[in-house]
Design goal:
103 residues; Rieske Iron-sulfur Protein; 2Fe-2S; single chain; mainly beta; four-stranded antiparallel sheet
Amino acid sequence: MASWTRACAATDIELDDMIRFDHGSQTFVVVRSPEDEFFAIDGICSHEHVHLCSGLVMDGAVECPKHSATFDYRTGEATRAPACINLKIWPVKVDGGQVYIEI
């Protein structure tokens, strides 16, 4: 059964940036959009299994640091090759200045 798990404080992430969050054997990235909304997606690139947290956030996407594949952080959709497998998105809520992911 899924439960809400604290990932970080909202202030830990700058606007238009991301942070890595590990929980058990899973890795996530939590993104804070320029509109101050929070999103969570799988944190490993579906192409070469690289940690996305070393990449960039730009124009609504997370860019992989290895081959520049991009993923829409709102939908998880792979939007630029070489990645062609979408990433899973995770529900996010902010409560009391803390960011939670439903895992």
